[in-house]
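Reader question, answered in our methods column.
A reader sent in the components of a multi-part assembly and asked whether the whole thing could be modeled at once rather than chain by chain. We filled in our standard form and ran it. Here is what they sent:
COMPLEX SIZE: two components
ENTRIES:
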Amino acid sequence: MNQPAPVTLALDAMSGDRGFPVVIEAVDQLVQRGVDTAFIVVGNTEEIRSAWTNVPSTVSFVDAPEVVTMDDNPVDALRRKKSASMRVAIDLVKQGQAAACVSAGNTGALMAIAKFVLKTIPGIDRPAIMAELPTRDGHLYMLDVGANASCTSDQLYQFAVMGEAVASRLMGKAPRVALLNIGSEDVKGNDAVKDAAARLKTSAVNYVGFIEGSTMFDGDADVVVADGFSGNVALKTMEGTALLIGSFLKDAFMRNAGAKLQGLIAKPSLEQLRARMDPRAYNGASLVGLNGIVVKSHGSADAIAFAKAIETATLEIQDNLPATIDRRLNGER
Amino acid sequence: MNQPAPVTLALDAMSGDRGFPVVIEAVDQLVQRGVDTAFIVVGNTEEIRSAWTNVPSTVSFVDAPEVVTMDDNPVDALRRKKSASMRVAIDLVKQGQAAACVSAGNTGALMAIAKFVLKTIPGIDRPAIMAELPTRDGHLYMLDVGANASCTSDQLYQFAVMGEAVASRLMGKAPRVALLNIGSEDVKGNDAVKDAAARLKTSAVNYVGFIEGSTMFDGDADVVVADGFSGNVALKTMEGTALLIGSFLKDAFMRNAGAKLQGLIAKPSLEQLRARMDPRAYNGASLVGLNGIVVKSHGSADAIAFAKAIETATLEIQDNLPATIDRRLNGER
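And here is the structure of the entire assembly that came back:
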């Protein structure tokens, strides 16, 4: 966990749906904004160099001939693609060449490779994926959103400790931690959730109780803990519902000439709404519980979204996230 | 499963958040619309009668001195409140006095009492709750949305068979059945989901594969099967997201005088959107897998919403739903 100075990030340039052009554009945007981070761009160096007009001085390259695809089985990607951009980028973190890695690639493969190469923090059974979601008055962090399809109460407890550690740094306040459940009464839910609640109540975690999807965005919780199955269902149902409402909104303003005119007039307010729901503003899910910082960008992220994921990784470097989690967890044991 | 003629419904008038006035108003609305169903209104007969101006001729009363509250433990409600309106209404179905029961009460208590009194259809381990949700071009049915906090692959399979049976009648077409999962590939998900998928692939069910929350509302599935935990999370996250977007929309159109004017001008289109997302249009979740028809209304339902739940129950009576499920399941065995 030694940080090279200045802070250096390894960027997997090849694994996203849109390829390396997005990574070039994101880095250019950040450099233009005066960000002084150094970047190691990992991938097909020749192609990337030739496509990049005016490579910034803070950018260096490491060549990686292979690419992990979205269809690759995680285990195969781990075993066979040892010179893939994703693997090389994570290796750079392990070797201390980079303080964090950002990738828009296959989530399962990223998790498998990161876990194998970086290992988990002592006391953590499995890493989790932590995502940022909008709320009425800000945002919340949810974990796990997909790394662990079934979880024990021990894992849920570990997620709570990790989520609190990360959120306290990223939010700059003592976060309120809740467990995602299907009711607010003690008797509700499955055994894992009930047992985790009992344990959290007597822990040092700032645990505020069960929360349901219907009230999750009201702003009463900063960290929502869930098993990777229901957390992923919640995350994706939110996305699906936003798309559904977006299509209903479009239908409503396109149904006839009068409605189209209304839509034109209301455009500034509708743009305001769009900006607040813009998934790019929340891009960058953290793989937490590893001895190293790995941030997963959405596969189809554009440059603005990828730049957001890079910023999240940078914040986590400043906070030395793995060390923070380690300390919290040791304090709890 | 003998149906009295004309069709008679038992209405639990006491257990909803808004009490019997909602039930009175819903029945009045249906009678005004020419619905020829007969209603047995169960509850505090004296109070209800005195509050009801012009009781329709199709309405009769059965007195029930007790009420199951939202805080009642399901087991206590089942054991101790044998003269509660909820219990009496379900007893009327068991006795053949009513062809179905509609209640806006405590879901857990309703499920426990209905299961005890009516019993499950042979081959069904546990009943499920099936809810209707909007999609881009229509609607879908999801089950289980909360009766079973953990489910085996056998149960998921039974939910698929039941969901297909109900939806084929309510939709008037051969429904496409999908399993809610956290990815579309075979390797994704927990064991219960993977095993259920393997079984559904070789069954007579019109199974179309895994579906994710992000694409669930695109119109590619008519029945979405889930365990009661993740199904409930999906349902409530949809509700929470709709509320969140509603509040963002309000913020956008209230942020200054110009935006307020835009909102006034766009009001007809925004009302169009509101109507399509109106939860009242989807009120009425069916308890499926029982030897009898029980429909659960949202606790805070108003008269329009409660009337929708009554209409769902009426459709299920016309289709003799328990017999249909029984036949499908026997055909499958």
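What stands out: The first helix of chain A runs from residue 20 to 32. Chain A touches chain B through 60 residues (CB under 8 Å).
Send us your own complexes using the same form.
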